[in-house]
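WARN retry 2 of 3 for item q-0093 after timeout on previous attempt; input resubmitted unchanged.
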Amino acid sequence: MTTTHKVGTKLSVNDAHTTLADLLGPFAGNEVFYRRLIAIFEKNLSQQLLDIKQLAAQRNMSELLALIHTLKGTAGTTGLASLHLALHDWERTLTELDTTTEATRCYAHVGQHIADIAHAELAHIHALLATSVVDTPLAKTEQSTETLSLVQLTDELDVLHQHLLQGNLNAVDYCQALQAKLAVNSPLANDLTIDLTILCDTIEELNFDDALIRLSALAATIKSQG
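OK item q-0093 returned
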C-alpha cells in the first residue's frame, strides 16, 4: 500500500518501501550496513533541518537551494525516496518563484514541510527495521595490525576515489578501514592525518562531491612528498 503525505503545501510524496526486503534491496540486503547508514543520515539531519528553516527565514535563496540540493542527494543515497522527491519538488518550486506573494508562502512552509516528510519517512523506515528477526548490532571498525607505505596508501586512495566516483556506499567502510590501518603506523605527517580524518568525516556525511575534492587535494600533497 502506498501512503501519501500532504503537509503544509500542495506538494505530496509517496512512501516507496512496503517491506524490509524492499527497503534493503538497493543495499544488497545488508541490514547491518543500512542501519549504520541511516544512523549517519539521522545524525546530520537535525542540523540540516534547522539550517533550512533559518535560511528560509532569512530568504537566503542561494544557500537554501544549495542545502536542499545536498540533502536531496543524501536522502536518495540513503533510500528515503519520499524525502528525495519532496526536496526535488522544492528545489524546482523555489527556482521558479516569480512573485513576492508566492515567495512569502513558500518560505513560510518549506522548512516545516521538509521536516515533516523526513520524520514521517524515517518513522516508516524504523517501523520496517523493527520487523527484522535478525540480531544486527552496529558493526565497529576493528583496529588493523597492517601498516602502509606511501605507495600503498596512494593505491588505497585510488580505490577510495573510484568508490566515490561511482557513488558506492562502500566508501564509508573503506575509509574507516583505511583510518584503522593508519592508526598503527602512519606514513603521513600529523597535518595530513588530520586531513584524512576530515575526509572520512565528509564521506560519513555522504557528501561525496566535497569528499572527492578533499581526496584530490590530499592525494596531490602525498604525491608531492613521495
